[in-house]
Model the fold of this input.
Amino acid sequence: MIRIEKIRFCIFDVSFSCSLMKNNVFLITGATDGIGKITALELAKQDKNASVLIHGRNRIKLERTTEELKRRSGNRKIECFLADFSSLDEVRKLAVEILSNHDSIDVLINNAGAGFAAPRYGKDGTETRLTVNYLAPFLFTHLLLPAIKRAAPSRIINVASAGQSPIRFDDIMMEKNFDGVSAYTQSKLALVMFTIDLASQLQPENIQVNCIHPGTYLDTGMVREAGIQPLGTAQSGADALVYLSTSPELKNSTGKYFNVRNEARAIAQAYDADARKKLNAIALKLTGLNKN
Done:
């Protein structure tokens, strides 16, 4: 048994080493804290030839994090990009800036998020959780698709949550009966639904699209700000993201929802094609992509 395990890990190491010869470009949003920051560090450490692009919304924190990651990883190819994802205009500008510097992106990790305790409205005056957790990554991913397609085989990982609730199509911004927890769980289901649709669209392009619940109440700023006692470490969540980003074992997996490292099932509405079509139409309108 031990011998078989050793052989299996040797195969994994060879496969992973081959992928690193590609000079990968990893892009992680929300990477100045928590699992995003640790994920960036682990990817930078594993692949000294990789370019690791990190995003944040606080310039000082972003610059400090960049220097810290360079020092701790030994990888000097770490770049930082500033944007507030509660503003779709800033998301558009961010995409333009990244594309002007990188014509291919091997792995996009949509990790930036707004939790239960975030302000009700963001920079655009729209509901913060729906905008940051769904509309921003929806727009950002679509704008970056030319670079992601150029890097194929490539991967998109959306950081969702086990906390999910059905979309309120008649009041998607929750102007009536607002509740921060419901707004969060609705936005995270929307991201799962986006994952399923995009995976189907991009499968012929050799691009994997998966989403993940990285762990329940991990020790992150978002959880602590909500006044919740953490139940797990941010490192465990980051390890799961690195696994989805790099594991050759998942080369044929797409359109899946993972609970940490295990394939799981989202709530029923995620698999309702009519509901996904309705949600997609709303997102195209709200992001302005239907005009392109």
